[in-house]
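Researcher: First entry.
Model:
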Amino acid sequence: MKNIFSFLFAIILLFSCNSGKEKTQLEQLTIEEKIDSTNIKSIFNTALTEGKSYEWLRDLTQNIGARLSGSAAAEKAVLWGEKLMKNTGLDSVWLQPVMVPHWVRGEKEVANYTVNNKKKNVPVCALGFSVATPEEGILAEVIEVKSIQEARELGEKMKGKIIFFNRPFDNTLINTFSAYGGCVDQRVQGAIVAGEYDAKGVIVRSMTNSIDDFPHTGTMSYGNLPKEKHIPAAAISSRAANILSRDLKENPTLKFFLKQHCKTLPDAPSFNVIGEIKGTETPENIIVVGGHLDSWDLGEGAHDDGTGIVQSLEVAYLFKKLQIKPKNTLRVVFFMNEENGTRGAKKYAELAKLNKENHIGGLESDSGGHTPRGFSIDANSVNTQLLQSWKKLLSPYGLHDLIKGGSGADIYPLKSDNVTLVGYKPDSQRYFDYHHTSNDTFDKVNKRELELGSASMASLIYLMDKYLYSNTVIKP
């Protein structure tokens, strides 16, 4: 009994200490910071009790699904986004035309090989922009390599072979995006190197830190290779890559079969979907928040980037709900074609420059819908320090990371020393379980994590709108 009372006393003391600590932190805030703290708390409370993002995501993923640029589903998603922005009550909503690539997968791919008279089927998917195999498929011996450089060193030995790029994620890296960056070159550039030396095809280990049976697609390139040297490129699952690597050690002359039917069609018309809340004091200054509306074709595009789309619009929804009237114009953008061309981002930046629009800030969500961790900042030193000074306001919500880094592929074309760009950074540990796979579905998104992300983004936009212009180096 004594131990029970001791335990209860310790728990009470712990809560008392935490309560006292929070009170002390609050007392250390200036009057203006206390106002900001109260408003940020209201943003989180509203997102967690009256948020719309989860049901918007359900609608997008379940009723439209995968939205590869140029597809009928992408066209449907544009109309969905336009209607949703209007229903949310934004001051103005419009579609911005852009021509986008139109690559199609065709029939399901087939891959297999035989060892010890046993046929092994391999989970496989074509990489975006890959050419098809001949109708009968390709069959060839396999050479395994761990890097682009190792492939280059093979030179003429690659002729007539299938080159197997098998460099896994570095799982010692805590940030899985760093691990992804450390090996994605083999997916993007593998066919350039192998095609130059007349290899028959390329297979690539899927870009994931998990060992599973889900092949990951993603874009690839032929660089400046002439068309006659374009060879089929596909990804195989991480588990299949491990098994194939083991089998090659025992059977170095085994032959791998690949058949795929993909092709690139002429560019297709599409749109960025744009809506805004007009600023009350300096409406000529624009802060953009967005994600990309397109997705790869294998799953439902839930984490990549359905979550970013609905979170971005929920920023505006929360402002409207809480009657927060931004000083600067708040613009929500659903960018088209991030996955295989970033045409929407380039068109948006091109027209912004042509129309002499004055963007002072941007926030992008394209890292999934998991638990918020913070933001990466791409800005001049003054504004980087400004954003980092808000940590005391944001850290109570788990937003401890306010680090110098990149922002996002869709807002990056707006980059200049006068524009403060920010990337929303949720926890990265599960993201590459789903990225570019058939497993990227609505059921993999947690409602509370999604809403916490919306609130995190809205809180940062609130602070950027309130403080950014007066501290920036932009001259009116």
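Researcher: Second entry.
Model:
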Amino acid sequence: MGIASINPATGITLKTFEPLDETAIAQAIDLAQQTFETYRHTTFAQRKAWLQAAADYLMANSAGYGKLLTLEMGKPLKSAIAEVEKCALVCRYYADQAETLLADHPIATDASYSGVRYDPLGIILAVMPWNFPFWQVFRFAAPALMAGNVALLKHASNVPQSAIAIETILRQAGFPEGAFQTLLIQADQVASVVADPRIKAATLTGSEGAGASLAATAGTHLKKTVLELGGSDPFIVMPSADLEAAVTTGVTARLLNNGQSCIAAKRFILHEAIAPQFLDRFVAAFKSLKIGDPLDMGTDIGPLATPAILHELDQQVQACLADGATVLVGGDPSALPIRAIAEFQQGNFYPPTILTRIPPTSAANQEEFFGPVALVYTVADLDEAIALANQTPFGLGASAWTTDAQERDRLLAGLEAGSVFINGLVKSDPRLPFGGIKRSGYGRELSSQGIQEFVNIKTIWVK
């Protein structure tokens, strides 16, 4: 259908959009470049005022925008509202910190003055995903705009109303026309945008395939990219762990956003000494969750974003079972009670599912499961846990649970991931850099490292 909002709980099309043609795209790039020539000279104080105004607007309208996110991609309303509020947090962080993070950095040499300054690059293209329609965009836009860049957004084709809303928010906050523009375009139109010499860099959050395609195109034109791609994050639990906290956090870590998160815990690696107790509690928690209308504030699990995602996830689960895996809970979307309600019969609902006894030869061990499915493994010791955790092409995040200091240090050093959390939920925080290694991408978002990705780190030397 192209660019369209389709309610994933009901299958009803809410609104459709025509992609921009080449003329409209060229006009948007022209405007962005014209705006950059003046915007780059605005002060940090002015940009801060605009970004703080955006944060205020987000907080004042979080319920309305939360409903929009739920209608477009199906996340429970309470999670959607929290996402909008987190966007205000990242706006406030960079509004307050950008000037310090980008301050000139003197370095003593044989010059009378030398060091580093940070200048904006120009137009930055952001290709963003549907799973966190506001957060993924604002965590890029806040630092990019505070650095003096201007931005073009190519959002996922199933969340166009969210894309339009973000541009509206930033314009209402005071940012000049052309500082941030949404391009309603298809994936096959991205390459021509990247090729324009006025586009200086690009960032993408999404699938491996999309990241590789953007990187290849940008590489042809010698343009920098930052990629945040998929993940198959391990969640390791050792005997010394606080089991109750590990189970509670594990449920959230796997099922947040209906399980559709790159940094969700996907592979649960349990020491054999505590595996039975953990699984008993884990299964009970999964069974207790309410699956239903995502607009109901009491709902824990809503629908997956598209029928294609539902189909792919179900195929992955069925392949695991065919390989000899055991299902402890879930695994059969046709058995969900919500499917008996006429309004939701076409919804993309999938039950929270736990699979164990997955054979080492199963393809599941190298895949990302993008939905509410937990893969459980049992190991004999810490060495085996770390080896299994690293036995994946991905390297985004990792969570490990132990109160043993030696185990903690070995986990922090040995786990191959962009983020390692001990006794906590892997999450993004504006104060900390975020990104992956291996096939999970490269570069960093957030913190000082994030804002410095898209600036000219200029060496200056004065005799």
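Model: Note on the second entry: The chain has two domains: 3-229+440-462, 233-429.
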